[in-house]
Specification:
Elements: E1 35-39, E2 46-50, H1 54-57, E3 63-67, E4 69-71, E5 75-79, E6 85-95, E7 98-104, E8 114-118, E9 121-128, E10 134-140, H2 144-151, H3 168-171, E11 179-182, H4 194-203, E12 206-212, E13 235-239, H5 241-252, E14 257-260, H6 261-271, E15 281-285, E16 300-304, H7 311-320, H8 322-334, E17 345-348
Parallel strand pairs: 1-17, 3-12, 3-14, 4-11, 14-16
Antiparallel strand pairs: 1-2, 5-6, 6-7, 7-10, 8-9, 9-10, 12-13, 13-15, 16-17
Helix pairs in contact: 7-8
């Protein structure tokens, strides 16, 4: 094993041991009842707060950017012609009734095979993609969206070692979710309640909406040690004209932009031009943010705690610095913070 000093330039630098007991399997009783680790980037100090304190922390006149994507019931459980079990995880619609999907068992589900989800809902296997996924065609008596909503399951992340429940249908979704299209939640937003959002608005904090449909690639581990060799997954995003105008006004007035989650961060950094100009736009992004990186729009970041050696923890390090990020993670583990989707939050000032 190499004895080189970790400096954040290699993927392996972001490995750490996380006790399994700290991986949150269930949501908190209250969305805003989570803890908040506050990191001051300028001084390197770390505070232990409660999430509800965010109302006191964000100043009037600043902008809070949220991702309004909605998680679909993308996990479809069915049977193969033999009667054996099969699973289809829909990733994105690519044509009329045609989707890109992850299927199990992939070797058994070749082109032409059918998976029966219900009497009136079957999924036909088409060709394989070059990404290890498959094209599939939905055959249902209902429109695709209705069939998926009726028969699908909430696609909980793989580190949640349980089946989804009726509670997950509501809790693995932000209170401001609006446009269906994600197969994973923008989890930093799960902490917000209507009361917290109302209190922020009453204080004079402006909410600005963006949209990024989160794909399953967000959980995909990096298989290389040199980040420049990693091929990032693509996700579709949109910045409305009203949001672009709001954020340009906020920045021009010397106020700050707060990104709720890495998805909002990636959207803004994908859409903002090198000179700091932001206009209405939409498209796909495969942006991979890792140290060193010069941020164009975002001043502060709210995020959850992420997987070791993930693109997301590397994004945090690009924003806060490698040493401070890893120290914050060590302190979170020592303090028994809850990790991942239903876990606690981190605020980077």
């Amino acid at each position: 094993m190499s004895d080189r000093t970790r400096d954040g330039t290699r993927v392996s630098d972001y490995d750490f041991e996380l006790p399994e007991a700290l991986i949150a399997q269930e949501p908190m009783a209250r969305r805003d009842g989570s803890r908040l680790l506050v990191i001051h980037r300028d001084s390197g100090t770390i505070e232990h707060r409660q999430f509800r304190d965010i109302v006191d922390i964000i100043p009037a006149g600043d902008a809070l950017v949220v991702n309004t994507t909605k998680v679909i019931r993308a996990r479809l459980l069915g049977t193969r012609p033999s009667g054996a079990q099969a699973e289809v995880l829909l990733l994105k619609a690519v044509g009329e009734h045609v989707w890109e999907a992850m299927v199990q068992p992939g070797a058994k589900l070749q082109a032409g095979k059918m998976v029966t989800i219900a009497d009136d809902f079957r999924i036909e296997m088409l060709d394989a993609t070059d990404r290890g996924t498959k094209w599939v065609r939905l055959h249902a008596s209902l429109p695709d969206a209705e069939a998926i909503e009726r028969h699908g399951h909430i696609p909980l992340p793989p580190y949640m070692t349980r089946s989804d429940t009726t509670e997950d249908a509501q809790r693995y979704q932000t209170v401001y979710a609006a446009q269906a299209g994600s197969v994973a939640a923008p989890t930093a937003g799960l902490h917000f309640t209507d009361d917290v959002l109302t209190a922020l608005a009453a204080k004079g904090v402006t909410r600005a909406d963006v949209l990024l449909h989160v794909g399953a690639g967000t959980f995909r581990p990096i298989s290389v040690d040199d980040p420049t060799d990693h091929v990032m997954h693509e996700e579709w995003y949109q910045v409305p004209a009203a949001t672009a105008a709001t954020l340009m006004t906020v920045k021009a007035s010397g106020r700050a932009v707060w990104a709720v989650g890495t998805t909002s961060m990636r959207t803004l950094e994908s859409a903002t031009q090198a000179g700091g100009t932001l206009a209405a736009c939409e498209g796909t992004t495969d942006i991979f943010i890792y140290p060193p990186y010069q941020f164009r729009m975002v001043d502060h970041l709210l995020t959850n705690f992420h997987l070791p050696k993930s693109t997301l923890v590397m994004l945090v390090a690009a924003f806060a610095g490698y040493e401070l990020t890893m120290r914050a993670y060590r302190e979170a583990i020592a303090g028994r913070y809850r990790f991942y989707s239903y876990g606690d939050a981190m605020l980077l000032l």
